[in-house]
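Morning, I've got a small favour to ask if you have a moment. You're getting the sequence in one-letter code plus the fold written as C-alpha coordinates. Thanks so much in advance, here it is:

===
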Amino acid sequence: MEDQPHQAPPPTPPPQPQGPQPIKMAPDQEKNNNINTRHMSRPNNTPRGIIICTAIILILSGITIFTLWFIYHPKNPSFTIVGAAVYALILTPSPLSSISTSMQFNILIKNPNKRVSIFYDRLTTFISYHDQTITPPFELPPVFQEKQGTVALSPVIGGGNPVPVSAEALNGLSLDVEGYGVMQLGVVVVGKLRWKIGLFTTGKKSVHVRCDVAVSVKNGSYGQVPLLPSPNSCHVNV
Protein backbone atom coordinates (compact mmCIF):
# COMPACT_ATOMS: atom_id res chain seq x y z
CA MET A 1 0.00 0.00 0.00
CA GLU A 2 1.39 3.25 -1.00
CA ASP A 3 1.56 6.00 1.47
CA GLN A 4 -0.89 8.97 0.84
CA PRO A 5 0.72 12.35 0.56
CA HIS A 6 0.35 14.46 3.74
CA GLN A 7 -1.97 17.51 3.28
CA ALA A 8 -1.32 20.65 5.26
CA PRO A 9 -4.35 22.11 7.14
CA PRO A 10 -5.97 25.20 5.57
CA PRO A 11 -4.49 28.48 6.76
CA THR A 12 -6.25 30.23 9.59
CA PRO A 13 -7.73 33.60 8.46
CA PRO A 14 -6.21 36.59 10.19
CA PRO A 15 -8.28 38.09 13.00
CA GLN A 16 -10.65 40.87 11.89
CA PRO A 17 -10.43 44.20 13.70
CA GLN A 18 -13.37 44.73 16.06
CA GLY A 19 -15.01 48.06 16.97
CA PRO A 20 -15.87 49.16 20.48
CA GLN A 21 -18.31 46.86 22.11
CA PRO A 22 -21.49 48.33 23.70
CA ILE A 23 -21.41 48.49 27.44
CA LYS A 24 -24.27 46.67 29.01
CA MET A 25 -25.87 48.41 31.99
CA ALA A 26 -27.98 47.01 34.70
CA PRO A 27 -31.74 47.52 34.18
CA ASP A 28 -32.05 49.93 37.15
CA GLN A 29 -29.16 52.10 35.95
CA GLU A 30 -30.59 52.24 32.42
CA LYS A 31 -34.00 53.29 33.77
CA ASN A 32 -32.48 56.11 35.86
CA ASN A 33 -30.51 57.39 32.87
CA ASN A 34 -33.68 57.52 30.77
CA ILE A 35 -35.49 59.49 33.47
CA ASN A 36 -32.64 61.99 33.82
CA THR A 37 -32.52 62.44 30.04
CA ARG A 38 -36.25 63.25 29.94
CA HIS A 39 -35.92 65.77 32.78
CA MET A 40 -33.00 67.49 31.10
CA SER A 41 -34.78 67.77 27.79
CA ARG A 42 -38.05 69.10 29.25
CA PRO A 43 -38.18 72.93 29.45
CA ASN A 44 -38.84 74.47 32.86
CA ASN A 45 -42.27 76.20 32.60
CA THR A 46 -42.98 76.49 36.35
CA PRO A 47 -42.42 80.30 36.74
CA ARG A 48 -44.47 81.03 33.65
CA GLY A 49 -47.30 78.84 34.89
CA ILE A 50 -47.34 80.56 38.27
CA ILE A 51 -47.49 83.99 36.61
CA ILE A 52 -50.37 82.93 34.36
CA CYS A 53 -52.34 81.41 37.27
CA THR A 54 -51.78 84.51 39.42
CA ALA A 55 -52.95 86.80 36.62
CA ILE A 56 -56.10 84.72 36.08
CA ILE A 57 -56.90 84.79 39.82
CA LEU A 58 -56.44 88.57 39.99
CA ILE A 59 -58.63 89.14 36.93
CA LEU A 60 -61.41 86.91 38.28
CA SER A 61 -61.21 88.59 41.70
CA GLY A 62 -61.49 92.02 40.09
CA ILE A 63 -64.49 90.95 38.03
CA THR A 64 -66.17 89.50 41.13
CA ILE A 65 -65.60 92.65 43.20
CA PHE A 66 -66.85 94.89 40.37
CA THR A 67 -69.96 92.74 39.92
CA LEU A 68 -70.77 92.80 43.65
CA TRP A 69 -70.21 96.55 43.79
CA PHE A 70 -72.42 97.10 40.75
CA ILE A 71 -75.25 94.96 42.14
CA TYR A 72 -75.05 96.10 45.78
CA HIS A 73 -73.79 99.66 45.20
CA PRO A 74 -74.31 101.10 48.70
CA LYS A 75 -76.03 104.35 49.52
CA ASN A 76 -74.53 106.76 52.04
CA PRO A 77 -75.88 106.58 55.60
CA SER A 78 -78.03 109.45 56.84
CA PHE A 79 -77.34 111.46 60.00
CA THR A 80 -79.92 113.45 61.98
CA ILE A 81 -79.66 115.56 65.15
CA VAL A 82 -82.73 114.86 67.32
CA GLY A 83 -81.79 116.41 70.67
CA ALA A 84 -79.35 118.76 72.38
CA ALA A 85 -78.18 119.82 75.82
CA VAL A 86 -75.84 122.60 76.98
CA TYR A 87 -74.09 122.01 80.31
CA ALA A 88 -71.53 124.82 80.24
CA LEU A 89 -70.61 127.81 78.11
CA ILE A 90 -67.83 130.19 79.15
CA LEU A 91 -66.63 132.95 76.82
CA THR A 92 -63.21 134.37 77.77
CA PRO A 93 -62.11 137.52 75.88
CA SER A 94 -58.69 137.97 77.47
CA PRO A 95 -55.83 137.47 77.77
CA LEU A 96 -56.52 135.00 74.95
CA SER A 97 -59.91 134.69 73.28
CA SER A 98 -61.23 131.24 74.08
CA ILE A 99 -64.46 129.28 74.49
CA SER A 100 -65.07 126.60 77.10
CA THR A 101 -68.22 124.55 76.64
CA SER A 102 -69.76 121.17 77.27
CA MET A 103 -72.64 120.09 75.02
CA GLN A 104 -74.43 116.90 74.20
CA PHE A 105 -76.13 116.02 70.92
CA ASN A 106 -78.29 113.03 70.15
CA ILE A 107 -77.30 111.72 66.72
CA LEU A 108 -79.30 109.14 64.76
CA ILE A 109 -77.50 107.22 62.02
CA LYS A 110 -79.63 105.27 59.55
CA ASN A 111 -78.42 102.69 57.06
CA PRO A 112 -80.73 102.78 54.00
CA ASN A 113 -79.19 99.70 52.34
CA LYS A 114 -81.06 96.40 52.19
CA ARG A 115 -78.03 94.22 51.43
CA VAL A 116 -75.11 96.18 52.87
CA SER A 117 -73.93 96.54 56.47
CA ILE A 118 -71.55 99.26 57.67
CA PHE A 119 -68.54 99.33 59.98
CA TYR A 120 -67.67 102.76 61.44
CA ASP A 121 -64.02 103.02 62.50
CA ARG A 122 -62.22 105.82 64.36
CA LEU A 123 -65.06 108.32 64.35
CA THR A 124 -64.48 111.65 66.09
CA THR A 125 -66.85 114.55 66.57
CA PHE A 126 -66.49 118.23 67.45
CA ILE A 127 -68.56 121.44 67.38
CA SER A 128 -67.88 124.42 65.18
CA TYR A 129 -69.17 127.97 65.08
CA HIS A 130 -68.81 129.94 61.84
CA ASP A 131 -66.35 127.29 60.61
CA GLN A 132 -64.17 127.62 63.71
CA THR A 133 -63.74 124.65 66.02
CA ILE A 134 -64.89 125.49 69.55
CA THR A 135 -64.40 122.08 71.25
CA PRO A 136 -61.65 119.49 71.32
CA PRO A 137 -62.35 116.41 69.16
CA PHE A 138 -64.20 113.63 70.97
CA GLU A 139 -63.54 110.02 69.91
CA LEU A 140 -66.59 107.80 69.40
CA PRO A 141 -66.55 104.02 69.90
CA PRO A 142 -66.48 101.71 66.84
CA VAL A 143 -69.95 100.94 65.54
CA PHE A 144 -71.35 98.11 63.42
CA GLN A 145 -74.63 98.88 61.70
CA GLU A 146 -76.90 96.15 60.34
CA LYS A 147 -78.75 96.38 57.03
CA GLN A 148 -81.44 99.09 57.27
CA GLY A 149 -80.47 99.52 60.91
CA THR A 150 -80.50 102.63 63.10
CA VAL A 151 -77.79 103.59 65.59
CA ALA A 152 -78.15 106.31 68.27
CA LEU A 153 -75.14 108.17 69.65
CA SER A 154 -75.21 110.77 72.45
CA PRO A 155 -71.68 112.10 72.93
CA VAL A 156 -70.89 114.83 75.43
CA ILE A 157 -68.52 117.10 73.54
CA GLY A 158 -66.15 119.70 74.91
CA GLY A 159 -65.69 118.71 78.52
CA GLY A 160 -65.27 122.35 79.54
CA ASN A 161 -61.75 122.52 78.07
CA PRO A 162 -60.90 125.98 76.66
CA VAL A 163 -60.27 126.22 72.92
CA PRO A 164 -58.60 129.32 71.40
CA VAL A 165 -60.77 131.15 68.85
CA SER A 166 -60.61 134.41 66.95
CA ALA A 167 -61.99 137.59 68.50
CA GLU A 168 -64.61 137.74 65.73
CA ALA A 169 -65.91 134.26 66.58
CA LEU A 170 -65.99 135.04 70.30
CA ASN A 171 -67.86 138.35 69.81
CA GLY A 172 -70.30 136.76 67.37
CA LEU A 173 -71.18 133.91 69.71
CA SER A 174 -71.54 136.33 72.63
CA LEU A 175 -73.95 138.46 70.59
CA ASP A 176 -75.99 135.43 69.53
CA VAL A 177 -76.33 134.13 73.10
CA GLU A 178 -76.96 137.43 74.91
CA GLY A 179 -78.83 139.26 72.17
CA TYR A 180 -80.86 136.53 70.46
CA GLY A 181 -80.64 133.54 72.79
CA VAL A 182 -79.80 131.30 69.84
CA MET A 183 -76.62 129.52 68.78
CA GLN A 184 -76.09 128.44 65.20
CA LEU A 185 -73.68 125.53 65.46
CA GLY A 186 -72.19 122.83 63.34
CA VAL A 187 -71.87 119.27 64.63
CA VAL A 188 -69.08 117.58 62.69
CA VAL A 189 -68.31 113.85 62.53
CA VAL A 190 -65.26 112.53 60.69
CA GLY A 191 -63.64 109.12 60.44
CA LYS A 192 -63.56 105.93 58.43
CA LEU A 193 -66.18 103.41 57.36
CA ARG A 194 -66.25 100.04 55.60
CA TRP A 195 -69.06 98.47 53.59
CA LYS A 196 -69.86 94.79 54.27
CA ILE A 197 -71.41 93.05 51.25
CA GLY A 198 -72.10 89.41 52.04
CA LEU A 199 -68.76 87.89 53.06
CA PHE A 200 -66.82 90.69 51.37
CA THR A 201 -65.72 93.82 53.28
CA THR A 202 -64.32 96.84 51.45
CA GLY A 203 -61.30 98.87 52.47
CA LYS A 204 -61.65 101.88 54.71
CA LYS A 205 -63.21 104.99 53.19
CA SER A 206 -63.17 108.49 54.64
CA VAL A 207 -66.49 109.89 55.83
CA HIS A 208 -67.21 113.55 56.65
CA VAL A 209 -70.52 114.67 58.14
CA ARG A 210 -71.65 118.17 59.03
CA CYS A 211 -74.98 118.89 60.69
CA ASP A 212 -76.16 122.51 61.02
CA VAL A 213 -78.33 123.08 64.10
CA ALA A 214 -79.84 126.02 65.99
CA VAL A 215 -80.30 125.69 69.76
CA SER A 216 -82.07 128.03 72.18
CA VAL A 217 -80.14 129.27 75.23
CA LYS A 218 -82.43 132.07 76.45
CA ASN A 219 -82.09 133.36 80.02
CA GLY A 220 -78.87 131.41 80.48
CA SER A 221 -80.81 128.16 80.66
CA TYR A 222 -78.70 125.01 80.66
CA GLY A 223 -79.44 121.33 80.44
CA GLN A 224 -81.80 120.08 77.76
CA VAL A 225 -82.42 122.84 75.23
CA PRO A 226 -84.83 122.88 72.32
CA LEU A 227 -83.74 122.56 68.73
CA LEU A 228 -85.21 125.48 66.83
CA PRO A 229 -86.79 125.14 63.41
CA SER A 230 -83.98 125.36 60.88
CA PRO A 231 -82.76 123.47 57.86
CA ASN A 232 -81.10 121.12 60.44
CA SER A 233 -79.63 119.18 57.57
CA CYS A 234 -76.66 116.86 57.68
CA HIS A 235 -74.40 116.61 54.67
CA VAL A 236 -72.65 113.26 54.32
CA ASN A 237 -69.60 112.79 52.09
CA VAL A 238 -67.97 109.37 51.63
